[in-house]
Design brief:
By secondary structure, the protein is an alpha+beta fold. Helices cover 25% and strands 15% of the residues. The protein has 8 helices and 15 strands. The strands form 6 sheets. It has a 5-stranded mixed sheet. A two-stranded antiparallel ribbon has the order 1-2. The chain has a two-stranded antiparallel ribbon with strand order 3-4. The termini are far apart.
Length: 353
C-alpha cells in the first residue's frame, strides 16, 4: 500500500499585516501612557524639590535658635582690597549669601570651616570652595543646577570683585533663593546718601532676607504661615549663566523679589524666552514651590493675583524710582506681594494654589 501523502503543517504565527497592527496598537498605548508616566515623574521631582526647601527651612530655624536672629539676605563687602577705604559705603559689591551662613546646619560644617570668613567669598583665598556642591541646593527639575558651568574672568569682573582670577572656574548653581520682599529696593549705605540708609529704604526692605541684619522671627508679624521664606528660582541663561551662584548674596543669585509675578519671562527678538533672574520661577510648569516661614511648603500657581506690571522691564504699572533709591507711586499690591511682606498687616485669607 503506497504511503499516504503528508499534510502540510501550518505553524501558528502572525502575518505581516497582523504584525503591523500589533505594533500600531503598542505605539498607541505608549503614546497614551507616556504623558501619565512623565507627569508622575515630574510630580516626584516636585515633591523632592519641596522636601529640599523644608530641609533648608529646618536649617534656618536652627540658625535662628542658635543666633537669635535670621541670617541677613546678603552681606555687604568689607574686604578693603575690593571694597575701598570706607566699606561698605565705598562699594556696591555684595559678599556672602544666606546659604553660606546655614552650611553648619545642613551637615556641611567642613565646607563652612574651609571658607576664609575674613575676606570676600569671591576673593582668591576662597576659590577652593566655589566648586563645592550642596545637595539640598538643587531642584531635580532644574537641569542647570545639576551641572557646573565655567565662569570666565570677565563675568567675575563685572558681577563680583574687580580682581579677575587667573583662570576660568567651574561653579555650581542653586535652585533656591530667599525672599527679599515685594520690591528690589537696596538698603545699604552709599556715598551718595552720606553713608546712611534712608528710612524709606528700610521700609521697602519688607521681606525676610534682605539688607537688614537684625531680623528675627518676631519681626514676621503677618504670621509665619502667611509669609514666604524661600522660593525656587531657575537659572535663566542655561548656556552660560550669569546668575544663580550659591555662595554670593546678589539678587539674581540667592534672592528673589515679588516685584515680579512667578515665572515671568522676557523674550529677546528672535531668541528664546528667559526667566527674569530676580523673579521666583521653576520648571515644574504652572507655578513654583515656596517655603513659608513656619516651615511648611506650598505650590503657588503663576496665575496668583499680583499687581499689574508693564512689559518689557516688568516694573509695576505707574511706579517711578526716586533718585534717592526707592520706589514711589506703586499700584495696589496683590496676594503675591502680600505673601512676600513680613509686616504689612495683610491677612491673606485664600492661598491661590
Amino acid at each position: 500500500m503506497p504511503p499516504r501523502p503528508k499534510t502540510p503543517v501550518r505553524h501558528a504565527g502572525l502575518t505581516l499585516i497582523e504584525l503591523l497592527v500589533v505594533i500600531a496598537l503598542i505605539g498607541a498605548l505608549i503614546a497614551l501612557l507616556l504623558p501619565a508616566v512623565q507627569s508622575a515623574r515630574e510630580a516626584g521631582r516636585r515633591h523632592r524639590c519641596a522636601s529640599n526647601l523644608r530641609q533648608i527651612g529646618i536649617a534656618l530655624h536652627s540658625y535662628h535658635d542658635t543666633v537669635g536672629l535670621l541670617p541677613p539676605g546678603r552681606f555687604p563687602l568689607y574686604d578693603r582690597r575690593y571694597a575701598g577705604p570706607n566699606p561698605p559705603c565705598s562699594t556696591t559689591y555684595i559678599d556672602k549669601s544666606i546659604f553660606v551662613q546655614v552650611l553648619p546646619y545642613v551637615e556641611q560644617s567642613a565646607l563652612y570651616d574651609a571658607i576664609n570668613q575674613s575676606v570676600a567669598i569671591t576673593a582668591r583665598e576662597n576659590t577652593s570652595v566655589w566648586s563645592a556642591r550642596v545637595g539640598l541646593s538643587c531642584c531635580p527639575s532644574d537641569p542647570a543646577a545639576a551641572n557646573t558651568f565655567t565662569l570666565d574672568t570677565a563675568h567675575l569682573l563685572v558681577d563680583s570683585v574687580p580682581d579677575p582670577m587667573p583662570a576660568p572656574h567651574r561653579l555650581p548653581l542653586t535652585s533656591y533663593s530667599g525672599n527679599f520682599g515685594s520690591l528690589n529696593t537696596a538698603a545699604l549705605p552709599s556715598e551718595r546718601s552720606h553713608c546712611k540708609v534712608w528710612p524709606t529704604q528700610l521700609e521697602q526692605n519688607n521681606g525676610c532676607f534682605n539688607d537688614i541684619a537684625n531680623l528675627g522671627l518676631s519681626s514676621v508679624t503677618d504670621g509665619l504661615s502667611q509669609t514666604i521664606f524661600l522660593s525656587e528660582k531657575v537659572n535663566p541663561l542655561l548656556d552660560q549663566p550669569r546668575f544663580g551662584w550659591w555662595f554670593t548674596g546678589n539678587r539674581g543669585d540667592t534672592l528673589f523679589t515679588a516685584m515680579y509675578p512667578p515665572n515671568l519671562k522676557s523674550k529677546a527678538v528672535g531668541g528664546p524666552a528667559y526667566f527674569y533672574p530676580t523673579a521666583a520661577s521653576s520648571l515644574h510648569g504652572a507655578g513654583v514651590n515656596v517655603l513659608m516661614a513656619d516651615g511648611s511648603t506650598r505650590f503657588v500657581k503663576e496665575t496668583i493675583q499680583s499687581w499689574s506690571i508693564r512689559m518689557p522691564g516688568g516694573r509695576p504699572v505707574g511706579a517711578i524710582t526716586d533718585p534717592r533709591g526707592w520706589w514711589a507711586n506703586l499700584p495696589a499690591p496683590g496676594v503675591w506681594q502680600h505673601l512676600a511682606t513680613r509686616s504689612g498687616g495683610e491677612a491673606v485669607k485664600v492661598f491661590d494654589e
